[in-house]
Give the backbone structure.
Amino acid sequence: MVGNRILSAIALSLSIAFAQQAFAQSPNVPKYTGDMLLFPDGFRTWVFVGSNLGLTYKGEATTDAPTFHNVYINPEAYAYFRDKGEFPDPTIFVIDMFASATKEPQHIVAKGSYDGTWAGNLVAVKNSARPPGPKGEKTIWAYYIFTDPAHPSQPAASAAAQPDDNCEACHKLHGLKDHVWVQFYPTLRDLKK
Ligand code: HEC
C-alpha cells in the first residue's frame, strides 16, 4: 500500500513536471529582437498544411529546377482556424523551401523528385502588435525572408519585415482567406464546415 502511494506520488510529480515543461514550450508566438523577427525554431514539428512544387508567381524569376514549398502553421493557430474558421492574432506560417532532387548517390531512384538541398525559409506573421516595417508599415500581416546569402545552408537568426509592396499586397489581393493561400493547403481547405 505504502509502495503504491509512493508510486502514485512519483507519477503525480512527474506529470506536473511534464505539464510545466509543455507549458514552457507553448504557445508558439512571434518573438522579436528590436524590429526583427526571430527565426521560429522548431516549426518542422508544427502542423503541415500542404506542399507544392515549382509554383511561381507572375513576374517572379524562374529557374529550370522547380522548388518544393512545404508549408507549416503553428499548432495553436491551426486549432483556432479549425474551430472558428479564422486565423487568430497571432498566427505564424513558414514555407520550408527545397531544390527538387532527382538523383541520389546510391542510384536507387528511377523516377520522381524529392526534397533536395534546403533553399530558404519564408515566414508570414499575423500580429496586430508587430514592430513597424521599413516604411513604418503596421499592416496586421508581415512577411519575412530568412534566407541569408552569406550562409546559404541555414536560415538567418532574425529578419526584418519586407516592405508591404513586396509581399503583403499580393497576399491581400489574392489569398483566399485573410491573406492566406488556403486554396493550396489541403489541411486547411478540406476542414469540415
Ligand atoms: C505575386 C503574388 C505573391 C507575392 C508578391 C508574394 N507571395 Fe507569398 N505566396 C503566394 C502564393 C501563390 C502562395 C501559396 C503557396 C506557396 O507559394 O508555396 C504564397 C504563400 C506564402 C506563405 C505561406 C502562407 C500563406 O500566406 O499562404 C508565406 C510565408 C509567404 N508566401 C511569404 C511571402 C514573402 C516573404 C513574400 C515577399 C518576399 C511573398 N510571400 C510575396 C503569392 C505571393
Notes: The mean pLDDT is 89. The two ends are 51 Å apart (CA to CA). Residues 52, 55, 57-58, 69, 71, 93, 95, 122-124, 143-145, 162, 166-167, 170-171, 175, 179-181, 184 surround heme C (CB under 6 Å).
